[in-house]
């Protein structure tokens, strides 16, 4: 992912509250447009970098369950 995309997304959401982030994620998922995926990736990256090992492990386990065939 291009670093400028990370900066732009970060600048666009800086100062947003939890409800606004939830709205952004829900809207991106509902719209299903692939150009919105990098933004969700930036959100995940920010969260991941601030998460504890136990939070990362729990998230990874939940995510893996969503991709069970």
From TrEMBL:
It comes from Solibacillus isronensis B3W22. It comes from the Bacteria. GO terms for biological process: asexual sporulation; sporulation resulting in formation of a cellular spore. Belongs to the SspI family. The keyword rRNA-binding does not apply. NCBIfam families: SASP_sspI. HAMAP family: SspI. Induction: Expressed only in the forespore compartment of sporulating cells. This is Small, acid-soluble spore protein I. It is found in: Spore core. Keywords: Sporulation. Pfam families: SSPI.
